[in-house]
Amino acid sequence: MSNYRKISDRIEELMVDNPRSASRLKWLNIVNAGKTEIDYLRRNYAFDLAHLRSASAAVSFQRPQIFRGGKYLFLILHFPTFKGGRIVASEVDFFIGHGFLITAHNNSLKVLADFFNLGRKNPASLLAYSLESSAILLYEILNVLINSCYPLLDENSISLAEIEDLIFDRKQKEAVEQILNLRRNIINVRKIIQNHKNIFQKLLEIESSIVEKGAIKKYYADLVEHSKRIWEILDNQKEMVEVLNNTNESLLNNQMTDIMKTLTIFSVIVFPLTLLAAIFGMNAKYMPFVDQPWGFWIIIGIMLIGCVGMLLFFRQKKWL
């Protein structure tokens, strides 16, 4: 059976109790741990004070870590989540020992809350229900969290396809902002995921008095493979966004070159006309065509002939 109770507004307890087994497994889920929640853990568990302070919602670590306490493990892990249109790191702290598992987080990872509710409503769906091992429950939680990365990677792939369409539809300016946003998201996921493989490798050595060592190793090796696969996808996405960025910059440079060429041709054509107009505007005595009845039109004709001549010259040089 499964016993659930709400200890406080921020602490929930799920007791996973399989009637066929004499052992029991307790999962404490703590959201936005403050002084009250830390004091509760301090009274009921022999955790190191530094680890308890690290689990406080007011403290945030920049990289994943694993510590071994007296009779427990303390883990700090980060997982990507969307916030305001960008991917950010969400921290989850784990205390794991014989017969108990404690998770402390800021409730930004919906999959973790959903998994806790699943265990509350249907405990038999949990692998830990049949084995009643905190090591197995930790594996299940990590498996859910690491698998939640794949939809984010799928979003990145969709963005890559959209950017490619924009680029080849000659919408370079619209593509620039999307490229910058996608590059930031990929970099953020890489920073979050980069050390997970090492942490999971260390967890391969985790021991349980209930589950065989080989079985635990098999489960955690699966997490290692997931982290490798995610890293490979991120590498491919990083390479793709760099290629698209280079392509977009090349097309922007080509557009700028065309604009500069057009302006240069225009200025070169206008220069002799300006020069001719300045000469005939000097009001010097005995200026040709000035005193003739058709002088104005003759001068305009000379200008037009100069324009046509310059255009023919540019065309012959294949500059147009």
Features:
320 residues, alpha+beta, Beta Polymerase, domain 2, Methane Monooxygenase Hydroxylase, Chain G, domain 1, seven-stranded mixed sheet, 7 strands
Describe the structure.
It is built from ten helices and seven strands. The chain is an alpha+beta fold and 320 residues long. It folds into two domains: 2-252, Beta Polymerase, domain 2, CATH 3.30.460; 258-316, Methane Monooxygenase Hydroxylase, Chain G, domain 1 (Up-down Bundle), CATH 1.20.58.340. A seven-stranded mixed sheet has the order 1-2-3-7-6-5-4. Helix 6 (149-168) runs antiparallel to helix 7 (172-193) and helix 7 runs antiparallel to helix 9 (213-280). The longest helix is centred in the C-terminal third of the chain and has 68 residues, at 213-280. The mean pLDDT is 84.
Number of helices: 10
- Helix proportion range: 55-70%
Give the percentage of residues in beta strands: 15-25%
Residue-averaged pLDDT: 84
| Rg of Cα set | 35 Å
CATH homology group of the largest domain: CorA soluble domain-like
The total beta strand count reads: 7
Structure summarized in a few sentences:
With 320 residues, the chain is of the alpha+beta class.
Ordered list of secondary-structure elements with their pairings:
Layout (H helix, E strand, L loop, with lengths): L1 E5 L4 E6 L8 E7 L3 H10 L4 H6 L10 E4 L3 E12 L2 E12 L2 E6 L4 H12 L5 H5 L2 H14 L1 H20 L3 H22 L2 H8 L9 H68 L14 H22 L4
Parallel strand pairs: 3-7
Antiparallel strand pairs: 1-2, 2-3, 4-5, 5-6, 6-7
